[in-house]
Amino acid sequence: MSEVRVRIAPSPTGPLHLGTARTALFNFLFARHTGGTFIFRLEDTDQARSTEAYELDILEGLHWLGIRWDEGPGIGDEPERGSYGPYRQMQRLERYEEAATRLLAQDQAYYCYCTPGELEAERRRQEAARETVRYSGRCAHLTPAERGAFEAEGRRPVVRFRIPPNRTIAFDDIVRGHVEIDTAALGGDLVILRSDGTPLYHFTVAVDDAAMAISHVIRGEDHLSNTPKHILLFEAMGAPIPQFAHLPLILNPDRTKMSKRKSQTAVADYRAQGFIPEAFVNYLALLGWSTGTEEEVLSQAELIERFDLSTVNSAGAVFDRERLVWLNGQWIRRLSPDDLMDRLRPFLQADLDAGRIDWLPSDEEIRALLYVVQERLPTLAAVGDLIRFLFVKNLDPDVAAMVPKRWDAATTAAALSAARRTIADVGRVCWEADEIEPPLRSLVEDRRWQAGDLFMAIRVAVTGRTASPPLFDTMVALGYERTLARLDRAIEKLEAQAAAAP
What we know:
Elements: E1 5-8, H1 18-34, E2 37-40, H2 52-64, H3 93-105, E3 109-112, H4 116-128, H5 144-152, E4 158-161, E5 168-173, E6 177-182, E7 190-193, H6 201-211, E8 216-220, H7 227-237, E9 243-247, E10 250-251, H8 267-272, H9 277-285, H10 300-306, E11 317-318, H11 321-334, H12 337-353, H13 363-373, H14 383-387, H15 399-402, H16 409-426, H17 433-447, H18 451-463, H19 471-478, H20 480-500
Parallel strand pairs: 1-2, 8-9, 10-11
Antiparallel strand pairs: 3-4, 4-7, 5-6
Helix pairs in contact: 1-10, 6-7, 9-11, 12-13, 16-17, 16-20, 17-19, 18-19, 18-20
């Protein structure tokens, strides 16, 4: 196999998982780095759990990440691409049946008539005897008469592939090095077709990889123990054995395996939280691989140029959300103003739909704020926390948050009243941050206040928050009249509380 041909083959039984996305990315980067072919194949034979909604989630998620395939099934109005199709397993059932028929004819597979009850009883006996649980092979050498008797009972057989006993399967994994696994650990002869004729995973993956001339199988470490079964199937079919590379698992910070029950694993959730694809791809690429340098912020083109499968780490890759957030912020800083505005609009619309703001900011209003927020956004969704106060008609600040520890409500009301007069004197014409700040600092010095006390009280009064973009830029964005009106409302609330105090 001189041509590099790799694939991602998700099952549409759940949303796009972080691990699947990372595996797809590594396959994509390897194909692009080597000038090879990247294939998308849908393993949709689990009809009980496969859904169109999950399929769409996977397709949209990979497209969002900028992962494009050279061959794959027809999606929407797009036709199927590639000469090795079809690329949906449910459209390849005849091929699996043909492959199973050849294995049966070569006596490398056989019909098994064991009932679920008989298999369960065998499993319990082995567990009670503390034996390795495996299929005993009771149907491996049935005579035609014995087969006929089972069929007369109405039993519908499965097809099992013969796993040779007492053999060690050895292969050189690109990531993990030399691996040896004894066939005694494989659980006995392998079911490849159910009694209704539908194929099982191990069979379909081997048949498809052989038929599609896959040169490198790049997948998660959790598939490592499956590899001997696949190698045996490749051998039985007379197909070339691809090279294997088993990627490290993605782990939680406590080094437990990520799971949808304990962790946030759906790519769509991160997208909804305002992570951008440039950052997400950058971060996924660094989960188990590095450039060998201190560089962390890398574009897709840079990742393609530098990616080396042989330098992927075999140790588990810990998912560090703080590092992802940092990278996301770095990539947000790189966006052009128009691009950033386009990406922020859906999150501002969501704030409007949820009633958190009273009107949708215009392009001009958003553009005027970009210089304030772009350097401070960890995610796109955080834009609401930074600027939401600008787009509400009536702000009702919390009195407790306005009052500094060293002051009471009456002192705070008096201080804000003095600040209000100082701010009003600045006037509309000179309403700029560098015109507002000096007189307020002079007020602080004259009254011998702590600047932090007054500025925090003003901040909460005009924004309703204890943290916001720079205070004086915030007041400029809010406007002269609205700033004074919010200060008046805050002073009124403080005076009312002071009057009610015992």
